[in-house]
Amino acid sequence: MRVVLICRYDGSRYHGFQIQPNNNTVQEEIEKSLRKIHKKNVRIYMSGRTDSGVHAYGQVLHFDTDLNIPTDGWVKAINAMIPKDIRIVSAKVVNDEFHVRYNSIKKTYSYKLYLGREIDPFLINYVGQHKFNFNFDKAKEALKYFIGEHDFSSFCSKNTSVEDKVRTIYSFKMDRDNQNDNIINFEITGNGFLYNMVRIIIGTVQDVAAGKYEPEYIQEILAKKERSFSGPKADASGLYLKEVLYDNDEVNEFINKTIDLF
To answer: Which positions does UniProt annotate for substrate binding (predicted)?
Structure first.
């Protein structure tokens, strides 16, 4: 049977989610636990990769198993063997035609940006940093130019292997953190994201906020379809995979209930 897992992790100590030779990754830690449970190798599939230092509130995974273990049993068994900065939040048995990557229709990322030259060392792994002047109103105005369907060639890393770079952004918003005025919270939702796309978008918005160019210049950057015209990648530490939704109401209900637990 196919089991879907909702996973949370602090990415600070990991070289991203996907397994890499000679590097510690989230996928490796989870697969090691499944190997112990099954006495053989078990492959897990993810809704999307996250880079080194990036975190997740709601990464969605699946694996296939021939073991008859209750869903709460999977949560307990896996969590007992993985590091404390990775947690399986919940599990659900699904139809074996469901795929966490290919059936996704909407993803939401959040980004936390700290404003200031000096930063609390207890925040450093969980926020990006902007050391210059930050014009909140201009940054907020820039967000609207990303909404809709666009070719995001200017906002992905050059080494991406994906040929079709057209994506749709459904919403993009920002506000000041309720507990810390020095932190700006961004949230962006789309039908999919290219390699480093969110980080490059945030880095470009930072350039607008710093006065490098006006908000409407975003339209020209999109039209250029060339990475060299957009801003730098924002720090990985501020990025969080928040939620993934699917063309499956039963799975979405399961995901929404899980998120409501935290």
So the answer is: 109
Give 232-245 pLDDT, tens digit per residue.
999 999 999 999 99
Cβ count within 10 A of residue 62: 23
What residues pair up with 168 in beta bridges, in sequence order? 149
Question: 195 burial class (0-12, 13-18, 19+ CB within 10 angstroms)?
Answer: middle
Cα separation, 13 vs 30, in Å, equals 15
Give the separation between CA 174 and CA 147, rounded to whole angstroms.
13
Query: Which H or E run contains 63?
Result: strand 55-64
Q: Strand, helix or coil at 50?
A: coil
Query: Is 96 an annotated catalytic residue?
Result: no
Residue positions in the annotated binding site?
A: 109
Task: Locate 207 and state its tokens.
Answer: 């350039």
> Could you tell me which of 182, 92, 167 has the C-alpha nearest to residue 128?
182
Catalytic residue among 10, 51, 85, 177: 51
The pLDDT assigned to 261 comes to 57
| DSSP codes joined into one string, 171-218 | EEEEEE-SS-TTEEEEEEEES---TTHHHHHHHHHHHHHTTSS-TTHH
Condensed to tens digits (0 to 9), the pLDDT of residues 64-96 reads 999 999 999 999 999 999 999 999 999 999 999
Confidence band for 260, pLDDT divided at 50, 70 and 90 = low
Strand partners, 86: 9
Q: Which long-range contacts (CB under 8 A, 24 or more apart) does 249-257 make?
A: 250/94, 251/4, 251/92, 251/94, 251/98, 251/103, 254/4, 254/6, 254/90, 254/92, 255/6, 255/58, 255/60, 257/90
